[in-house]
Amino acid sequence: MLDSFVGDSTLSSGCHYHMRKIILAVLGVLLIAAALFITKKIIDNKKRPQPKAAKVIKTVFVDTVQNKTVPIKIAANGNLTAKRRLELYAEVQGIFKGSAQLFKTGQKYKRGQALIRIDASEYYASVQSAKSNLYNLVTSIMPDLRLDYPDIYEKWQGYLNTFDMSKATPKLPEVTSEKEKYFITGRNIYTTYYNVKNLEQRLAKYTISAPFVGVLTEALVTEGTLIRQGQKLGEFIDTSTYEMQVAIGKEYGDLLQVGESVELSNLNKTKTYTGTVSRINSSVDQATQTITTFIEVQEPTLREGMYLEANLDAKKEENAIEVDRGLLQEGNKIFVVRDSILDIIDVNPVFFSDKKVVLKGVPDNTIVLSKNVPGAYAGMLIKVYQEKTKNSNVSSDTSASTTKKQ
Question: pTM of the entire structure?
Fold first, then answer.
């Protein structure tokens, strides 16, 4: 019995061992098969073709070149100042008297109208005294002239008849002989006459009159003020004509001429005026290497101190074109379009402004870019922008692009 039991146990243990080996063998085969399947999948995926990237063709704006005469304009700016300006100074002393118009800033005056009157009553009396003295001297020589020089008596009598104490002293009669000259000089008439004229000249300084039609731009005194000799009283300007001083580079000095027309505008570009080159300085400023040029303009709406911009017609360049400065590459090259491909050509820039450049050496009918294209290069494939029909309301942006898959 015992032997029989031991034999059965041994047989059962052997069967379990064989079953385990079979299971392990099957699992190994399955693992190998799975590994082969995964490997095949990875290899197949690597062989699959990659999708091609879409090629971007940029739409560009172009112009067809037609060489023509391009006027070269030099930009400048400055402030307006009155061409005719009068600084008022007192040459005499006295009290400022009121007149028909108040001496105030902005007051307009006509030519010959009194700007300032200084009280001259005391000085006027001394002038009248001197004039009376001259009249008495001339009167005292008349009896002698009648007796000794009857041929010149009527001439001096006529002088006395025209002598008016309320008016300026008339000019002495012209001397016609040496005897007459010695006689008049010996009676001290010439000395007295010129003394009177000197006093009259000084009396005229008590009134300052407007030499032209204008406006008072500065008033430093008021009525009743004690004015002292040499004191500044104000400023008076002619508002009909203004000048603007601008600095032009010395390289353009030989291109400017007096009398040339100049286009002026305000900073907002809302108003334009026409001026002319009135004066050109013959020397160059050593510090800035510029030439001072004066532009004259006449316009009732202008005011002194206004800031204007000027475009001076320096010269005219024949067989040239004008493009934006941003289109110039490397200082002397521009992009052209040839069969939907960008190319680059050499050009000759002859003048630069703040936004434009004048070029020479570009053949007629050459198609060039009219707007800059970011990232442009020679050989770049592009598409020329075609204008839509007038009935289309669709607008296009300069950076528009089309995508073409190949």
Answer: 0.61
Q: Which fold has domain 72-83+238-317?
A: Elongation Factor Tu (Ef-tu); domain 3 (2.40.30)
- What does the alpha-carbon distance between residue 149 and residue 187 come to, in Å, rounded to a whole number? 15
- Distance, in Å, from the CA atom of 219 to the CA atom of 46, rounded to the nearest integer, reads 95
Q: Which of 207, 336, 202, 312 is nearest to 260 (CA)?
A: 312
Give the model confidence (pLDDT) of 366-392 as tens digits.
888 888 888 888 888 888 887 643 343
Q: Which pair of tokens denotes residue 336?
A: 């052209």
The reply to whether 72-83+238-317 shares the fold of 60-69+319-404 is no
Q: How far does CA 337 lie from the centroid of its chain?
A: 37
Q: What are the sequence ranges of the domains in the chain?
A: 1-48, 60-69+319-404, 72-83+238-317, 89-236
Q: How far apart are CA 296 and CA 397, in angstroms?
A: 44
**Chain position carrying tokens 């580079």:** 249
> What is the residue-wise DSSP string for 257-309?
-TT-EEEEE-TTS--EEEEEEEEEEEEE-TTT-EEEEEEEE--TT--TT-EEE
Give residue 4's pLDDT.
46
59-70 as b/e, with b when 16 or more CB fall inside 10 Å? bbebeebebeeb
Tens of pLDDT, residue by residue over 259-288, are: 888 889 888 888 999 999 899 888 888 888
Two tokens, residue 187: 């009676």
Collapsed DSSP state (helix, strand, coil) of residue 235: strand
Query: Which segments of 31-153 are extended strands (E)?
Result: 55-60, 62-64, 68-82, 85-89, 94-97, 108-109, 114-118
* Chain centroid to CA 365: 36
Kind and range of the H or E run holding 248: strand 242-249
b/e 335-367 (16+ beta carbons within 10 angstroms → b): bbbeeeebeebebebebeeeebbbbbbbeeebb
